[in-house]
Design brief:
alpha+beta; ATP Synthase, domain 1; Single alpha-helices involved in coiled-coils or other helix-helix interfaces; five-stranded mixed sheet; 10 strands; 31% helix; 42% strand; elongated; binds adenosine-5'-triphosphate; ion transport; cell membrane; ATPsynth_dsu/esu_N; ATP synthase epsilon chain; ATP_synth_F1_dsu/esu_N
Length: 139
């Protein structure tokens, strides 16, 4: 039987390794169905995530991590997020994300003119990643 606890632990992993690990009193993620807040002792859940920020509250502070999709598994007060890439707020290179955004926007325009649906879809996802990084870095 799981004990009631006032904290949960959050771990974010990518193919490059563990990007983030911390105890938390409240975790907020964005799923395909909208925002989901997770308090300690939440029921077990598995859900896929949008390219968006993950917010991890602990004490009076809140960490923000840009997460590139993936999924979240929560059970026994442990939240594990597995994503292709993820960056903590302080690790985001804003200039790099700005140039990725410009490249993606140019690629979207070209793909639209050429009616190239595959390139368009890839560029739209690249744009979402870049904008997410910029938003997380700046807020
Ligand atoms: P870029 O075109 O700038 O490479 P991308 O969206 O194609 O961006 P990804 O394939 O998602 O990049 O990520 C490749 C690696 O680079 C990952 O480890 C990711 O965390 C890191 N990364 C990508 N963009 C940034 C950034 N702006 N700041 C810090 N790390 C980044």
């Amino acid at each position: 039987m799981a004990d009631n606890s006032s904290v949960l632990s959050v771990s974010i992993v990518t193919p490059d390794g563990r990007v983030y690990e911390h105890e938390s009193s409240f975790l907020v993620v964005t799923t395909k169905l909208g925002q989901l807040g997770i308090l300690p002792n939440h029921v077990p859940i598995i859900t896929s995530l949008e390219v968006d920020e993950v917010r991890v509250k602990h004490g009076d502070s809140e960490d923000k991590i840009a997460v590139n999709g993936g999924f979240l598994e929560f059970s026994n007060n442990t939240a594990t997020i597995v994503a292709d890439s993820a960056e903590r707020q302080d690790d985001i290179d804003v200039a790099r994300a700005e140039s990725a955004r410009q490249r993606a926007e140019a690629s979207i325009q070209k793909a639209q003119a050429a009616h190239d649906a595959d390139t368009l879809a890839r560029a739209q996802v690249a744009l979402r990643r870049a904008v997410n990084r910029i938003n997380v870095a700046k807020h």
